[in-house]
Write a structure and sequence with these properties.
Layout: H1 2-7, H2 11-31, H3 43-63, H4 69-90, E1 92-94, E2 97-103, E3 106-108, H5 110-128, H6 134-153, H7 158-174, H8 179-206, H9 219-243, H10 246-271, H11 274-282, H12 295-307, H13 318-321, H14 333-366, H15 370-394, H16 412-430
Antiparallel strand pairs: 1-2, 2-3
């Protein structure tokens, strides 16, 4: 029995996770040390507690037969939706978003845990709908995605909401949904972002008025455009219905995407605050607002650049210890790491994440259970998206979205979610030959 217990754990994942969490604790501690080398924050103590409790969560879900989650998936998703609604109404404001629940100093972020619940529920649905018509399956999948993503966006927490979209696309791709449907989501998402940020881009970066761009800021013109594209889409749908010509299909496809994107951009402008929208574009030229939205990117790039090859040494970074870098224990933890242990240390972190991702691919490839396969795909994309977006963000090559670097950034919700995911992966791997 003891031997079987130790067989449960995937030691490649375990070693990589332990190393990342340990590095994270070190630099959460470093982020709380001031220029006089005095620790002014107890976040590292909390992070140690989060890591210890996260280990318990990981072990529990590694031992637990993940296939039993199928019976709990629908009620868990229903509870998630209720909690997200409750959070919008009664949650705490943190960094401009009402996305936290808690008592006293203890707080959790339901949308973080929601990512795993969403993955499990969506995997449950995809497995049970394999014989459903692709279009119906796709539309129901979009509804499953849209409900939690919209509620999180209403908090408003654009960064966390954005994680749900690549997870959905990857799991739909794994489920064999036609590429045209997936491209429809991708195009609509890209157009929504572009249409939402164009008014702010015109005002903040271009700094001149272009008559054509008024259709993206004037609600009356927007409604006219939406009605026009909707009518074109309806005509295209009728044409395809009667003539079965692909020409009409593509008309419907493009016009539908534009219609949804224009409508979503109106919602985006209403829900998102100006500074949140500005974060999406300020990376193009952070010096347009060097003391405002561009400040984080500028200071982060200075920190990374000053690290050089070997770094300035642990606790010897200037950007963090002189408090030039905001949110340095959470979203910008990689900036401190790069400043103090340099390119070599950063490369070591890159390698650890690469090993984790490759190991997840190995687990996905070898499992015989469809439910486990879908869960593995969802977790893979969650880890990949968090890593690429966070590192790209601190390097100034991607927008600032407030996405933490998993295992390293300070925060119990993020770390517990990551450890939960690792536990599920171990459970899937241990039972890889079971259907």
């Amino acid at each position: 029995m003891k031997f079987r217990f130790f067989e449960i754990f995937d030691y490649v994942l375990l070693i990589c996770v332990f190393l990342l969490v340990f590095i994270g604790i070190l630099f959460v501690y470093s982020s709380g040390v001031n220029s006089e080398q005095i620790s002014v924050s107890k976040e590292y103590i909390k992070q140690i507690i989060f890591a210890g409790s996260g280990l318990v969560i990981m072990v529990f879900f590694a031992i637990f037969d993940y296939r039993k989650l199928q019976r709990f998936a629908p009620p868990a998703f229903a509870v998630l939706i209720f909690v997200l609604i409750y959070t919008i109404i009664f949650g705490r404001y943190v960094n401009g978003a009402r996305s936290w629940l808690g008592i006293g100093n203890f707080g959790i972020q339901p949308s973080e845990f929601g990512k795993i619940i969403y993955i499990v529920f969506f995997a449950w649905y995809l497995e049970r709908s394999e014989n459903t018509l692709p279009l119906k399956r796709f539309l129901i999948s979009i509804a499953i995605l849209g409900l939690p993503a919209l509620l999180i966006l209403l908090q408003p927490d654009m960064g966390t909401a954005s994680v749900y979209f690549p997870i959905c696309i990857a799991m739909l791709f794994a489920a064999g949904i036609p590429a045209a449907y997936l491209l429809f989501i991708i195009l609509t998402g890209i157009l929504t972002i572009v249409f939402t940020i164009l008014p702010v881009w015109q005002e903040s970066i271009l700094q001149k008025n272009i008559a054509f761009l008024s259709i993206f800021s004037d609600n009356r013109l927007r409604l006219i455009v939406i009605a026009t594209f909707a009518m074109i889409g309806l005509i295209g749908a009728l044409g395809f219905l009667f003539y079965r010509n692909k020409y009409y299909y593509f008309i419907t496809w493009f016009s539908g995407s534009f219609t949804l994107a224009f409508g979503a951009s109106i919602v985006g402008n209403k829900v998102l605050k100006d500074y949140q929208i500005k974060r999406l574009i300020v990376f193009l030229d952070p010096y347009t607002d060097p003391l405002g939205s561009g400040w984080n990117i500028i200071q982060s790039k200075i920190a990374i650049g000053s690290g050089g090859i070997t770094g300035q040494g642990f606790l010897k970074g200037t950007q963090s210890h002189y408090r030039f870098l905001p949110q340095q224990s959470t979203d910008f933890i990689f900036s401190i790491l790069s400043e103090e242990i340099g390119f070599i240390g950063s490369l070591f972190v890159f390698v650890l994440f690469l090993i984790i991702l490759l190991r997840i691919i190995f687990i996905i490839h070898n499992t015989k259970n469809t439910f486990g396969y879908y869960i593995g795909v969802g977790i893979l994309i969650m880890f990949f998206f968090h890593f690429v977006v966070n590192v790209g963000m601190v390097m100034g090559i991607m927008p600032i979205t407030g996405i933490p670097l998993l295992f390293l950034s300070y925060g119990g919700s993020s770390l517990w979610t990551s450890m939960w995911a690792i536990g599920l992966l171990m459970s899937i791997h241990y039972r890889r030959l079971d259907f």
